[in-house]
Amino acid sequence: MDKAFDVIVVGSGAGGLAAAATAALLGARVVVLEKAGQIGGTTATSGGEIWIPRSRQAIAAGIVDDADAVETYIRAVAKCGFDAARSRRFIDVAPNALAFFEQRTHVRYALMPGSPDYHSDQPGACSGGRSLAAEPFDGRQLGKTFNLVRKPLENAMIVGGTSVCTRLDMPRLLRAGSRPQDALYAARLVARSWQDRLAGFSRGTRMTNGNALVGRLLLTLLEAGVEIRLNHEVTGLCVVNGRVEGVDVRNAEHVTSLRASRGVVLAAGGFSHSSAWKTRLFPHVSQGQQHVSLPPKSNTGDSIAIAQTAGAGSLRNPDQPAAWTPVSNVPVGQGRTAPWPHFGDKGKPGVIAVDWQGRRFVNEADSYHAFVLALLAQSNAGRAAEAWLIADHRALRAYGLGAVRPHPWPVRKHLRSGYLLKGETIAELAGRTGLNADTLERTVAEFNRHAAEGRDPLFGRGESLFNRRSGDAARAPNPSLAPLIKAPFYALRVLPGDIGTFAGLPTDEHARVLGVTGVPINGLYAVGNDAATLFGGDYPAAGITLGPALTFGHIAARHALGAGWPANTDWT
Ligand SMILES: Cc1cc2nc3c(=O)[nH]c(=O)nc-3n(C[C@H](O)[C@H](O)[C@H](O)COP(=O)(O)OP(=O)(O)OC[C@H]3O[C@@H](n4cnc5c(N)ncnc54)[C@H](O)[C@@H]3O)c2cc1C
């Protein structure tokens, strides 16, 4: 053993950084061990949205919500995966944990008032106010450490490595071609990025979304003197008389052990890149098929084996082992492609999705997770999962599609690269995609007939509040639906992708890892995607992985240190 700490944190994503920040601010000696050469894990590439019901921000906005309604919603979506103790703990602690982060760290969040829970028809669902978005952050405050933060996804940055804030920048950038004040805004963002590059930063230092969350927590850790060791892979646990007292860790030079007097927090981000676990848990992978995994390659499920050598119980495998999104591969030059997650565009009016037969298979305006579940259901029937998003000219130019920006941005480069296919008629488009022309024509005609009346008898699209909010408020009679009538028509191929895993270690309401008999293992915690989801394999709202990651990171640190809970803050 070479050095002693109170708390050792394994992994530097939201779960790990939240635990480390809490522990450090409560006075502990903390080290964060990170296997990769960069800080931030999947979190740094994420949207950074958090689902924290009953936050100070929601109360200030006059949103009426209560703990029982939240519990009812979690119970309804998690079904037999419902964990009463962990859910109640999350509901009670989450708003206070966020308040702690906002008062004691640099973390700042703003309400997303128009963002309802995804299953707005389920009991306990909220019409808006439980999801929050990260405030952008000036990465220059991190000094040289900024360059060690993992970059956002390639497609989430614009010229000069500027990371784009979904909430604040995106609407203005999309209008930059038509409104001079937004063009100026875009020019300023880009100019700032180039200035940052000249000052020696690896990219623009305006951090947004999940990158901002990481930057903000990181600054707190730096100020609190927390050690962060990159390229340090935790390979095992030191267990003494049934209590976890440290970890084995290796880097390029040596293998060593570190001691933790109060606890080890596993926050290694789940198993998106473990072929063994994927083969075991994903039916389509066991049948020889693949999907795109967006988390970093270092998320290989190490914590599972590590915890199990200390007696952890078997993985809790919910209804779905991963969180899904459709992904398209955008050509980015030199034969390379970069993934584009389709979170919001697939449900815009005038866009539909069809399967390999040219038939609709899903309510396109439901969540990205639900979309891929329907897609995978086909691959389980023995066929690789892929779908086509089909749009008419009006929809494509009004909303864009994937990497294709709306009017007045040109579509030419996407047609040239083959990312986007075009046909003057639906039959011609079918020819380009290899879909059956008669079937696709029938599908579009059938959809159009009802969409014109604002109905979708096949999948009920546009019936839920979430569907309508994801559409275009200006469309009547239904914001989610418009017929595809204006030629030319376009198609874009999407594949299943995961944005993290849901199956995880069994934990209790204090984030302690449970042993095979269900008894907590002393000194061992798991948070973030290393712990099993609270939602039974569903994806019921924006921010449902990062909200619990922050909350249980906070809970784990407090429990490890035996720290009590402050009295309710004055806004509750
Ligand atoms: C494009 C995209 C958008 C998303 N948007 C959202 C969103 O807005 N809201 C939301 O809730 N969720 C979102 N998600 C999902 C969310 O990002 C993840 O669920 C979350 O970041 C997981 O956090 P974590 O702390 O568990 O792990 P991570 O952030 O992945 O961090 C885990 C870290 O552990 C390290 N590690 C692995 N093994 C070891 C080891 N043996 N030793 C040391 N370190 C190790 C890894 O290198 C990694 O850096 C999104 C995901 C993607 C891809």
Can you characterise this structure?
It contains 17 helices and 22 strands. The chain is α+β, with helices and mostly antiparallel strands. The strands form five sheets. Strands 1, 2, 10, 11, 12, 13, 21 and 22 form an eight-stranded mixed beta sheet that branches. Helices cover 31% and strands 20% of the residues. Flavin-adenine dinucleotide binds next to α1, β11, β20 and α17. The site of flavin-adenine dinucleotide has 42 residues, from α1, β11, β20 and α17.
Task: Give keywords.
seven-stranded mixed β-sheet, 572 residues, 17 helices, 20% strand, 31% helix, binds flavin-adenine dinucleotide, alpha+beta, eight-stranded mixed β-sheet
Short account of what is shown:
The protein has 572 residues and is α+β, with helices and mostly antiparallel strands. The protein is 31% helix and 20% strand.
Bound compounds: flavin-adenine dinucleotide
**Weakly predicted, low-confidence segments:** none
Distance between the termini: 45 Å
Question: Overall 3D geometry?
Answer: globular
Helical fraction equals 25-40%
Number of strands: 22
**Radius of gyration from CA coordinates:** 24 Å
Q: How many H/I helical runs?
A: 17
Mean pLDDT: 94
Helix/sheet category: alpha+beta
The major pleated sheet works out as: 8 strands, mixed
Strand content: 15-25%
Question: What is the strand and helix layout of this fold?
Answer:
Blueprint: E1 4-10, H1 14-25, E2 30-33, E3 50-51, H2 56-60, H3 67-78, H4 84-104, E4 109-111, E5 131-134, E6 137-138, E7 157-158, E8 162-163, H5 170-174, H6 180-198, E9 206-207, H7 209-223, E10 227-229, E11 233-240, E12 243-250, E13 255-266, H8 275-281, H9 283-286, E14 292-293, H10 302-309, E15 322-333, E16 336-341, E17 351-354, H11 368-379, E18 387-392, H12 393-399, H13 412-417, E19 421-423, H14 426-433, H15 437-451, H16 465-469, E20 489-501, E21 512-514, E22 520-526, H17 546-561
Parallel strand pairs: 1-2, 1-13, 2-10, 13-22, 14-20
Antiparallel strand pairs: 3-5, 4-5, 6-9, 7-8, 11-12, 12-13, 15-16, 15-20, 17-18, 18-20, 19-20, 21-22
Helix pairs in contact: 1-7, 1-17, 3-4, 4-17, 14-15
The chain binds flavin-adenine dinucleotide (FAD).
